[in-house]
Amino acid sequence: MANQVPCGGWNGTEDATEETQKICDAVKDQVEEETNQKYVVYKAVKYRLQVVAGLKLTIKVFAGEEDYIHLSVFQPLLVMEERLSWSTSYKETPKATPSALFKR
């Protein structure tokens, strides 16, 4: 996630990285509680980010078979001493279905 992104702007959609997966794993319990589902398969596949007072990420997560969910996650600046927070998720099926979150 070291690409140059202008402050306030979104980067293009990129393949998920190990760091992206770690962020997804950090909010998995919250996502499962909110969606009332347990995800056996939960693999980050794509992401976009926006630099604000931290990083705002939209992450596409493969959830098994033909299911995908989209997570909206905010990672505050380290100096703010806040924790990672997840705000929303959206379910999408199948893989080929375009998502408004990833269009650009």
From TrEMBL:
<keyword id="KW-0963">Cytoplasm</keyword>
<protein>
    <recommendedName>
        <fullName>Cystatin-B</fullName>
    </recommendedName>
</protein>
<comment type="similarity">
    <text>Belongs to the cystatin family.</text>
</comment>
<dbReference type="InterPro" id="IPR000010">
    <property type="entry name" value="Cystatin_dom"/>
</dbReference>
<dbReference type="Pfam" id="PF00031">
    <property type="entry name" value="Cystatin"/>
</dbReference>
<keyword id="KW-0646">Protease inhibitor</keyword>
<dbReference type="GO" id="GO:0004869">
    <property type="term" value="F:cysteine-type endopeptidase inhibitor activity"/>
</dbReference>
<keyword id="KW-0391">Immunity</keyword>
<dbReference type="GO" id="GO:0005829">
    <property type="term" value="C:cytosol"/>
</dbReference>
<feature type="domain" description="Cystatin">
    <location>
        <begin position="5"/>
        <end position="102"/>
    </location>
</feature>
<dbReference type="GO" id="GO:0071220">
    <property type="term" value="P:cellular response to bacterial lipoprotein"/>
</dbReference>
<keyword id="KW-0789">Thiol protease inhibitor</keyword>
<dbReference type="InterPro" id="IPR001713">
    <property type="entry name" value="Prot_inh_stefin"/>
</dbReference>
<dbReference type="InterPro" id="IPR046350">
    <property type="entry name" value="Cystatin_sf"/>
</dbReference>
<dbReference type="GO" id="GO:0002376">
    <property type="term" value="P:immune system process"/>
</dbReference>
